[in-house]
Amino acid sequence: MSAARRAADTLAIAIVLLLMWQALHFVVGETALPRPVPTLAYLARLVTTARFAENAAATATAFAVALILAYGIGLAIGVWMGAHRLSGAVGEPILVALYSLPKITLYPVILLIFGLGISGKMAFGALHGVLPVALLTMAAIRNISPVYLKTARSLKLSRWQTIMTVLFPATLPEVVSGLRIGLTVTLLGVLLAEMFASKQGLGFLIMNAMSLLQTEEMIAVAVLLFAFAALANALLLWIEHRLHRRV
Amino acid sequence: MTRVGRIRLVVIIAAIGALEVACRTGLIDRRIVIAPSDMAASLAGILASGEINSDIVQTLGVIAAAVVLSVIFGFALGLLIHALPRVREVLDPLFATYYAVPIFIFYPVLIAIFGLSLVPILLIGVATAMVAMTIATLNGLDRVPRVLTKVARVHRMGRLATALRLQLPAAAPYLFTGVKLSVSYGFIAVIASEFILAPAGLGRDIADAYADFNNPRMYALMLFLLIVATFVNMVLHAWDLRWAERRGREPS
Asked: For the CA atoms of chain B, what is the radius of gyration?
């Protein structure tokens, strides 16, 4: 499919979503759901305010640190469990079970340990992101074709050379998939934390707008986060596809 | 039990034991985490008193309703989209992005529209779980071997018979994956909604116990939810394995 056609399709989806939004507005009324165009205009004004900058910065900081933690710890667990077969066999079902649990139930524990500040948000975001990164990294290492390793051995590559020229490039596409999913769920974790108990951040802004019945602001922030997540995902998907094509 | 299974059991028991010891010896402050045995005792008391029965019924009921609706409508939508290739082409990027965006941030919007009741919780549950079923249905239908359609033609089977006796069984493993994901997403969305803002339910109970500094109650309720979620996931996993085994034994 050509790029132009894909762009046209994406545009078509956006237009249909906007029309559905407008139609829903007519059904439920102005107070419950404002019209799309004024809401987007409101968003354009909102992003220039200091209040928005402050809260966006709080979310961005928590998200960035949570992401670094999730990637670091997730990759370490994934490499360990992928390279050491027994650990992988023992640990994988435990990780899978943890992955499908509603982790929001554990948020009060995080709050009790880290307090109400930004560190709790970081920890909760990281808790979400670690598992998919670890699981996909482990799978990537396990699925390396044995031929690659045999080739490395017959070429008498050193351990370091094997890692850098064989293992790393061979596992990269799948690891990037893990990083992409990790990014998504880490963002969700940070936002959930902000929605539950926080006095700062975009998640807080949404909950605050809801309690003040400022539906315009609530939807504007939600749409912005939606767009950010979609763009970040599209970028990583694009990298992922390029990597897959190269291997 | 296999060796790996035994080691896994030992690891889990050791982790719980370590937490117990750390709490009993005061290494971990009681105000932060209580001992696992205390959690279990507190849960037994709460369950025996019957005080959370209505919340259990409500939460599990909403999850069940969300999952059933998601599976039915997700499957129907998958069938429809599969029959319309051009529509599918347009929708593909949406499916690729759907689980990457935090759909949950629209929960407050649903509250604004429908009020604080079970409706927004049910809707956010369906919105989260349904698309997984649609994607799984599309995957399953894509992977029905072409030879089966030829077999159907050779035997002069009607459309309905082909769908029910060949296509549906062939796509079944993928459909079951969709059901599993729907259950998992349904759980997460409903509990998270109750946690953030809800008239009642187990998630709301936990949030209230947290606000009251009532750790024994909070940990007991958490333990209950985690046990239920783990049990449901294990049952689904066991079914999956059993079906995979049966399919493996059939002559193909």
From this structure: 23
